[in-house]
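Backbone geometry:
***
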Amino acid sequence: MTLTKSYSYAVVDVFTAEALSGNPLAVFPEAAEFDGATMQKIARELNLAETAFVLPATRPDCAARARIFTPAKEMVFAGHPTVGTAFVLLQKEIVPRNRREFLIEEEIGPVTVRIETGPPLIWLRTPPIHEGRCLDRSLCARAIGLEPHDLLPVEPQMLNAGNPTVMVALKDTAAVDRAWLDSAGLRTLKERESEPFCVFVFAPTPEGAYSRMFAPEYGLPEDAATGSSTGPLAIFMMRRGLVSNAAGTRFVSEQGTKMGRRSLLHVDIQGKNGADGIYVGGQVTPIIEAVMTLNSRYS
């Protein structure tokens, strides 16, 4: 026999106030019936950068639990799904709309979310950032299809706030737009790494940074907005004097423009050098309310 059930979900564009820009995200606000294998199949079916599934929290201090999947794998933490899920939790009143701060339970642990009004911004607190090894500039240039002289004279570095990311600073926005992933060069970079990683390229701008991110091992040839890498971007830029490290410093990372999905990721550095937290935030635009119908066989 066949059992048919329907599940509501929403699609929102994250890190934008304009529909059909930013980074799209599907959110299933009532996903307790799904197992991990089904969540992965749904994420592959929708084929967005990520799909988030809301479950009851297992911790009393968290408002909800979220599991996040790219088309290829589950993520322990991701930025635009955290911001987009928080928006849906508020819109569906799973979290009271007057709440200004709450926790979302993710695989990495509780993630703090705070709400700022006028204009409305949803902020996440970046999980602890681990600074890894520095990489050879020439090897990194080859991996992104550029020449060493296209890079700023600073060493690229691996940083990790849940998703390992190679940070590569380029001289200007034109170099960022020319970047592409060279598969042979990427294999050379991977020789010393035991897990998948993202490649994040950026150029400093008067507003903050102009950025792109590539993650083919995550099923994402290019990502329109990468909140999980933007906190590490702030650390990388502060360490090298590319942005102020003073408490209260704010800047904006523009990402996704080259792929036609312009995203604005706001960064708020709390405490000197981010000692009191690095927050990444943005606006969210709802675009779709939909229903998915699934059939299953049982005997």
About this structure: The first strand starts at residue 2 and ends at 14. The chain has two domains: 2-126+284-294, 130-272. The domain at 130-272 is CATH 3.10.310.10 (Diaminopimelate Epimerase; Chain A, domain 1). The mean pLDDT is 95.
